[in-house]
Design a protein that fits this description.
By secondary structure, the chain is mainly β. The chain has a domain at 101-215: Glucose Permease (Domain IIA) (Distorted Sandwich), CATH 2.70.70. It is 0% helix and 32% strand. The protein has no helices and 17 strands. The protein has strands spanning 101-104, 110-112, 117-124, 139-145, 155-162, 164-165, 172-173, 178-181, 193-200, 210-211, 223-232, 242-247, 250-255, 272-278, 280-287, 292-299, 304-311. Strands 1, 3, 4, 5, 7, 9 and 10 form a seven-stranded antiparallel β-sheet that branches. Strands 13-12-15-16 form a four-stranded antiparallel β-sheet, with no helix packed on it. Strand 15 (280-287) and strand 16 form a beta hairpin. The chain is globular. The termini are far apart.
Amino acid sequence: MMPFADVVATLPAPGAQYAIVETTVADMPTPLSFDAVTPTPDADAPPTITPTSTIPQPLENLPDLHYWLERPIPLAFQDYLDRTYPYGGTSGGRYRPHTGVEFFNPAGTPVVAVANATVAYAGTDQEVVYGPSVGFYGNLIVLQLTGVTYKGQSIYVLYGHLSQIDVETGQSVVSGSVIGAVGGTGVANGGPHLHFEVRIGDPKGYFTSTRNPDLWIEPYRGYGTLAGLISNDGGTPLREISIVIYGDDVTRYTWTYSGNENIPDDEWGENFTYGDLPEGWYTVSARSEKRTYSEDVYIWAGRTSWLEWEFD
């Protein structure tokens, strides 16, 4: 395993979610190369970013943001998520469709509450099944956020593969408090890491209630999120479409969701995301059977930018 990169990032102060601050692509956290799966780019060569220096106005009539969660790993450790196996991905077909995201850190790294919450469950899924099979998550913690609901439904977050559990079922926790430690229990492909999920309504609804954490975890200061929908001309979302995101001196890859258990956000209706992109212009490309689609997109700090294509 490669050494973990240091991340220097400061979360916005309360009420400063939409502040735009100076940043550069060089400030972007460097993802781990552990088990990296790099799809073949859909364009022959990275395009030249041609937009002018004029910053566009944010699109109107987009859904409300719900960046209500802090990061589940403290700032002193690797608190950015792994992009080689994102929500809805299969890591090149090696694994089942992913219902959460991964934070790779050594065993024993502390994990923290992402919001004020009540511990809905703390224990092993040998006793209570939360995944596709018994023992899938090993030691896990499920928190129910307090004082907030989404579309009238409770919000839960799940921490899987833990080496240590420091809370008990029914206990109240405050945002940022240590609740356990990273481990490799259960089906922890790739070694010790934190598996983190957002679930809406049903804490045990592996196939029905998961949502993409990219739309829930607050971006770094100066960073934003790309979300979008790629469908066919009949409006059906297309699965496992490779997407290439070109920025100044950086290229990133992601994929559209691959499984029925990958549920779009109730308001956004997306089938792909890429979070923690530094504010600025990007060229996004994907290819249908007939042609390559490409569009310039501006990412705003503290916001979600939207891209939608209907493949012919």
